[in-house]
Amino acid sequence: MPPITRPLLHLGDPDSSIAWRDGVAVSRRRFLAQARALAENLPDGRHVVNLCFDRYHFMVAFAAALLRGQITLLPPSRAPQVIQETADDYDAYCLCDAPLDGVRRPMHRLQLKNGATNGGAAPQIDVAQPAIVIFTSGSTGKPSPNLKTWGQLSLGTELALRRFGLDAATHHLLATVPPQHMYGMESSVLYALLGPSAVHAGQPFYPEDLRRALAQLPAPRVLVTTPVHLRALTRAGLAWPETAFVLCATAPLDTELAAASEAAFGAPLHEIYGFTEAGAVASRETLRDANWRLYDGMALERRDDDWLITGPQLAAAQTITDRLEVSPGGRFHLIGRKADLVNIAGKRTTLGELNRRLLAIPGVVDGCFVQPDPERERLAALVVAPTLDEAELLRQLALCMDPVFLPRPLVKLATLPRTDTGKLPRQLLLNLIGNARLSA
Fold first, then answer.
1. Secondary structure percentages of the chain, helix, strand, coil, to 5
2. What keywords are annotated for this sequence in UniProt (predicted)?
């Protein structure tokens, strides 16, 4: 029986664009030729760490690895030590588009060559072929690996494209999220590969750089971002180019930020709900419905105290680590992470609610609450607020929360150690709190 396959990319019109680099469109025909040429010149090996920063380079490298039968490793951080450990664990070589110091593994520098640009159908990839190993962010503990096949990635992307109307109509995507993250991988690389849309090759960070990059793209434009980035963009006071809609993920938004986004961009905001083990599984229009709606074909089932999710792109049911209130028809309300529940002196709240109140204080640029040791019933907070001192921050917090939740210590910082997607690795937060206690 022949293997079941799915195409490497949506070919459609081979001369249509798949990416934009420096204001110039790159055709699907050229992309496929460069991916085939690179596949022939990749080093031998079973695993490759794709470190390419340029999103188009990442796409070509990812496609070449698939064509060569190699598995792409996506570490949770670009820190040299993390990359080194990941590559050592899998005996992998690294593929990069810029020099990288501090990593002692075989390093293959990406060089794009134009191979044959003959027409024909898109290459077919066995759905059972392992495609990536992606790691959790470490925000709740040690990062753990998750292997995904090409069938799982392509089926999951198909559901997302259908949800947002990206399966037929061409859009032009700009993402602030790195492709090495599951959300960034799905909503930029895979959306462009498997749908008719094209993605900007850059990863602009500052609001004005992002505004210029967005203006380089033809309409209709889609911005793919995170809550941390979106907060900075809505506060920048810039006039944004016409945008079809905004996609946001990695943490649920409050209605204030969602409203600020729609006012700034003049476009609907869609949030995506997912987690590394399952990928994206649901979405909502935050200002119009607080409930999340599962992608087509997915379902929730109760098992003891847990909710499990099933779907055509999942090899097995996946346990959801959040607390849900489930309604009929594949809709649910997100209460919060199980690990975020705080119970001190008989009073209950969540870290998410405490963070929301902290970030609402005028003058607070960034911040988060942490419960270093649940057994000791004491919270800490890390805060970026250049114009406020500790006493004023505690006074403001006392106005909006019970005294048992006031942080001890409250640590002021210049910045928080966020990852490229805005996540905060728990161990780094605990280290900062420990250092603050030692120096007190």
1. 30, 30, 40
2. Ligase
